[in-house]
Design goal:
Length: 319
């Protein structure tokens, strides 16, 4: 492109792909003023005007407003400053769009009504302080006391939604927040915490509770597809109950197995695993901490090996 060459608005339209109307508007508004005019009065543009028009088109494609573009092309503001400002604005818009996408995705998946959609919207828009208050209230109800029981567990169960979360993280937060507000889930988790505390009343170092023993003790049986009601599961059950008995200085008898069954039935709540799965998504942790399959397997194994009258007794829970 020669520095002395001149182009009409039609030439620029063919060269840039912009419409004649758009280029005429830029020329009339002074954003890309013509270099001179032809003898017939047509506006003509030189190579510098063409480059200016290309910059205008690029910035408009990136969503930069015309007022900011004018400051750039008139050299009233450096391009890097305008680019940084608009990048920040886009980041804020993207954040809002992710929240909206998460709310609508969850609402569509559930077939939510207007009231539930509004509730999801409110949860998505909570500030970091409000989110922390909601979670702290849940955890304080599960692990009461001053100081609280198991402060390390409190930290490991606390979601930390990033400042720039993905849509998946926002969706996970919405579901986890609803679990935190669910009174029946709070009650279930509080009972689990108290049972864990009861299993550690024996002096000495902290010891694994019934759930942890089952999770570790039946992993191989689950992987092998052993039938919990079959005779091949006998040594697995005996190994787990025997270890639980030794840790607590008790006899491996029917009373101990009823005690384990009480704890495991309460622990066999799929919402507990779901909370941990959602927590992993929010915090960017690896998953794989589900205990429901192992607990369910062992509950069935215990029940078929207990006297009929013990199986039919209501499970004892700690309120």
């Amino acid at each position: 492109m020669s520095g002395d060459e001149r182009y009409t608005i039609g030439d620029l339209a063919r060269r840039t792909g912009l419409s004649v109307k758009t280029i005429r508007y830029y020329a009339d508004s002074g954003i890309v003023p013509p270099t001179d005019r032809s003898s017939a009065g047509y506006r003509l543009f030189d190579a510098e005007a063409v480059a200016r028009l290309e910059l205008v088109r690029t910035l408009r494609d990136l969503g930069v407003d015309l007022a900011a573009i004018r400051r750039v092309v008139d050299r009233e503001a450096p391009l890097r400053e305008v680019a940084a400002t608009h990048a920040q604005a886009l980041a804020a818009q993207i954040h809002v769009l992710r929240l909206r996408q998460a709310v609508l995705t969850v609402a569509a998946r559930r077939g939510a009504g207007p009231a539930e959609v509004d509730d999801l919207r409110r949860l998505a828009q909570l500030t970091a302080h409000e989110r922390a208050h909601l979670v702290d209230d849940f955890l304080d109800s599960v692990f009461p006391g001053d100081p609280p029981m198991y402060p390390g567990v409190l930290v490991s169960m606390t979601p930390e939604l990033p400042d720039d979360p993905t849509a998946e993280q926002v969706q996970a937060w919405l579901e986890l927040a609803e679990l935190c507000r669910d009174p029946t889930f709070r009650t279930s988790m509080r009972r689990l915490a108290r049972q864990h505390a009861a299993d550690n009343e024996v002096p000495g170092l902290p010891r694994p509770d019934a759930v942890a023993l089952v999770r570790d003790g039946v992993a191989a049986a689950l992987a092998a597809g052993l039938d919990p009601a079959g005779p091949e599961a006998d040594p697995v059950v005996a190994a787990v109950t025997g270890r639980y008995a030794r840790l607590h200085g008790l006899a491996d008898d029917a009373d101990l197995r009823r005690r384990m069954l009480d704890r495991l039935v309460l622990a066999n709540d799929p919402r507990r695993d779901r909370y941990l799965d959602l927590l992993s998504v929010i915090n960017g942790w690896s998953g794989g901490g589900a205990v429901a399959p192992a607990v369910g397997w062992f509950v069935r194994a215990l029940r078929v090996r207990m006297p009929v009258e013990a199986r039919s007794q209501p499970n004892q829970v700690i309120a």
